[in-house]
Amino acid sequence: MRIILDGMGGDDAPVSIIEGAIAATAEISDDDDIVIVGKEDIICECLEKYSYKGSQISVVNAEEVITNDEAPVKAVRHKKDSSVVRGITMVKEGDGDVFISAGSTGAILAGGLLILGRITGIDRPTLAAVYPVIGSEPSLLTDTGANAECKAKNLLEFGVMGSIYMQSVLGRQNPTVGLVNNGTEAGKGTPLTKEAYALMEQSNLNFIGNVETRDLQNAICDVIVTDGFTGNAIVKLTEGMGLMVLRELKKRFLSTSKSKLGALLLKDQLSQIKKEFNYAEYGGAPILGVKGALLKMHGSSDALAVKQTIMKAIPYVEEDVVGTIERAMENVQEMVGDE
Amino acid sequence: MRIILDGMGGDDAPVSIIEGAIAATAEISDDDDIVIVGKEDIICECLEKYSYKGSQISVVNAEEVITNDEAPVKAVRHKKDSSVVRGITMVKEGDGDVFISAGSTGAILAGGLLILGRITGIDRPTLAAVYPVIGSEPSLLTDTGANAECKAKNLLEFGVMGSIYMQSVLGRQNPTVGLVNNGTEAGKGTPLTKEAYALMEQSNLNFIGNVETRDLQNAICDVIVTDGFTGNAIVKLTEGMGLMVLRELKKRFLSTSKSKLGALLLKDQLSQIKKEFNYAEYGGAPILGVKGALLKMHGSSDALAVKQTIMKAIPYVEEDVVGTIERAMENVQEMVGDE
Q1: What secondary structure, in 3-state letters, does chain B show?
Q2: Strand B223-225 and strand B176-180: pairing?
Q3: What mean pLDDT comes out for the span A258-263?
Q4: Which CA distances in Å does B190 have to A148, A199, A232, B208?
Q5: What percent of chain A has pLDDT over 90?
Q6: Residue A156: pLDDT over 80
Q7: Do B159 and B275 have their domain in common?
Q8: What pLDDT does residue B331 have?
């Protein structure tokens, strides 16, 4: 398998990208290799500082960079020699199996749509994200921001694609699917959630009904389905609260000599909690619904996050998530019809 | 001032209501009194178990109870002798200054609309909530669930009403107002948030622009404006994460004898964190936009939550929040016109 990494995306590129790639070579199979796409001179100069198995990491030059400030569709159309366009094109042409980037979400989505194209039957691809549940296995949240406005049909598709990813990549058998709503009763919510509820109930999904956000940290379901506006609010609030908790614990636990001693005795427990709150542990967010495997990492991804995302990319490809979604969509399309 | 309490609403009524009322009598002025509305026999039997200043607590009988399972509008129309209808009618007729209930949110909202009526110029009243920010002063979140679907004009009104409440009741001068969005840049979001942004920018609000949920625990603004679907997701996720943090800290800190000792040394810090995560500390949620003062408490409110809500009710009435909103709406209406 060949994993394509965007060498230019993210706050700390290319250093964290390169360090993550090197860390991954210690864990991936000898048959797998990693290609870093981006400005060759910068990447090679950085690579030279590390020792690694040369046959497993190579560089493909791309002179342009798409920034977060650019209009995504326009950037993808015009910057043909950017790391994002080159990398996704390699997946399209079979020169790579999966593309991973910490760059502009909009550009990666636009690249997926324009270069790879949508899977037949998918109206809107989704940016899903592994959603950390502290003290338990993570859930998958879809959509987290690719589609701020949704139709009920989109939410159903998110549920189908999310279930396939959850089963194939995270090994969760027959994953449960919940619809984010403002109450658990069947009749609750907006016209959108009511219609989505009806579609999901009729589907083959392991649908458990409406879920309230207060239960997301109780591991209420494996796949959490919502529109991209609400999903974005959920994922960012969860992240913000995690950071707040760590900040407040640290501040208070270091406030007196007695509390410092207490914190010392709780060192193991505190570092475990810190680890579980760390988004980097959970790897990147798959873009599901396009004809190729794409993973978007957080812009602030460090080497650990990059390595973890590479490790998630392997079952994503091996279990043929893209092909499984293509086949599943044939059934969904029969159910909801063409709109 | 006369404070009307719903004696029948909430998981633990009338006990927590009565205990909260008695606790409040120790703090309110001698000129203030509390009326508990509900089944007189049950309430009086319960009251007899406590000692309190008899002149400050009285009971008004209401034989019916509106439950959470009932269709709110129908229940308010038919159950004329319910605690909610009697209590709100007392405010309407000047027999009370504010009505407080831990009962059905829908019924209290419907009662507000049908009995008190909307303030001229207000399209949709809002259920606002004091939003705890750990380690800092709380914000106010509006709307938290009264209006799952909103127009831009509604969001502007929420900002105006929220600012008035924040300034009058929580004493925050010239409160900052933020609009929840999926990015901070001005052009971000859905048609709804884009239109609301434009309206709020032109208004007299101290508008700071779009805010992302990741910054809500950084005390990014005093008044957080969003639609009721997103607001409901935010408030319930915050609550759920707070409970999760307390649960996980407890579980891990009690896991070994060494960690138990550590937790003992951190007792003060841990109980302070627990206190800050406790919704009860922050009092109830005002329903703003109707012609009278209403406060909705959490269904699981304990005596502390009841007492804190009573204490919040006093400036709500004294600072004439309802009248201030009425006057402010005249200006807003001039700006956005009649729709």
Answers
A1: CEEEEECCCCCCCCHHHHHHHHHHHCCCCCCCEEEEEECHHHHHHHHCCCCCCHHHEEEEECCECCCCCCCHHHHHHHCCCEHHHHHHHHHHCCCCCEEEECCCHHHHHHHHHHHHCECCCCCCCEECEEECCCCCCCEEEECCCCCCCCCHHHHHHHHHHHHHHHHHHCCCCCCEEEEECCCCCCCCCCHHHHHHHHHHHHCCCEEEEEECHHHHHHCCCCEEECCHHHHHHHHHHHHHHHHHHHHHHHHHHCCCHHHHHHHHHCHHHHHHHHHHHCHHHHCCEEEECECCEEEECCCCCCHHHHHHHHHHHHHHHHCCHHHHHHHHHHHHHHHHCCC
A2: parallel
A3: 94
A4: 6, 24, 12, 18
A5: 86
A6: yes
A7: yes
A8: 75
pLDDT of residue B339: 46
Residues B132 and B150 in one domain: yes
One domain, residues A168 and A28: no
A180 contacts in B (CB within 8 Å)?
233
- pLDDT at position A334, please? 65
In a domain, A328, yes or no: no
Give the gap in angstroms from C-alpha B25 to the nearest C-alpha of chain A.
33
pLDDT at A333: 64
CB contact under 8 A, B233 and A236: no
Clarify whether residues A110 and A195 are in a common domain: no
* A134 with B262: Cβ contact below 8 A: no
Structure tokens at B17: 């209501």
Average per-residue pLDDT for chain A = 93
A87-130 pLDDT, tens digit per residue, is 999 999 999 999 999 999 999 999 999 999 999 999 999 999 99
Q: Do residues B127 and B275 share a domain?
A: yes
- Interval B283-337: pLDDT, tens: 789 999 999 999 999 998 999 999 999 999 999 999 999 999 999 988 766 665 5
* pLDDT at position A339 over 50: no
On whether residue B336 sits in a domain, the answer given is: no
Which of B143, B213, B246, B274 would you mutate first to test chain A, the one with the most A CBs within 10 A?
B213
Contact with chain A for residue B250, Cβ under 8 A: no
Is residue B330 domain-resident? no
- Residue A335's pLDDT band (boundaries 50, 70, 90)? low
Looking at the structure, tell me whether residues B156 and B246 fall in a common domain: yes
Q: Which B-chain residues 172-231 have CB contacts (< 8 A) with chain A? A: 180, 182, 189-191, 212-218, 228-230
What is the mean predicted confidence (pLDDT) over A248-271? Answer: 93
- Give chain A's domain count: 2
Q: Measured between CA atoms, how close is A106 to chain B, in angstroms?
A: 12
- Cβ contact (<8 Å) for A251 and B135? yes
The pLDDT of residue B333: 64
Tell me, yes or no, whether A106 and A36 share the same domain: yes
pLDDT < 50 positions in chain B: 338-339
Which positions 221-240 of A are in contact with B (Cβ < 8 Å)?
A: 228-230, 232-234, 236-240
Which range of residues forms the domain containing residue A301? 1-122+289-319
Mean pLDDT of A38-58: 92
Query: The domain that contains B307 carries what CATH number?
Result: 3.40.718.10
Whether A244 has its CB under 8 Å from any CB of chain B: the answer is yes
Q: Count how many pairs of residues, chain A against chain B, have C-beta atoms within 8 Å.
A: 149
For residues A18 and A96, state if they share a domain.
yes
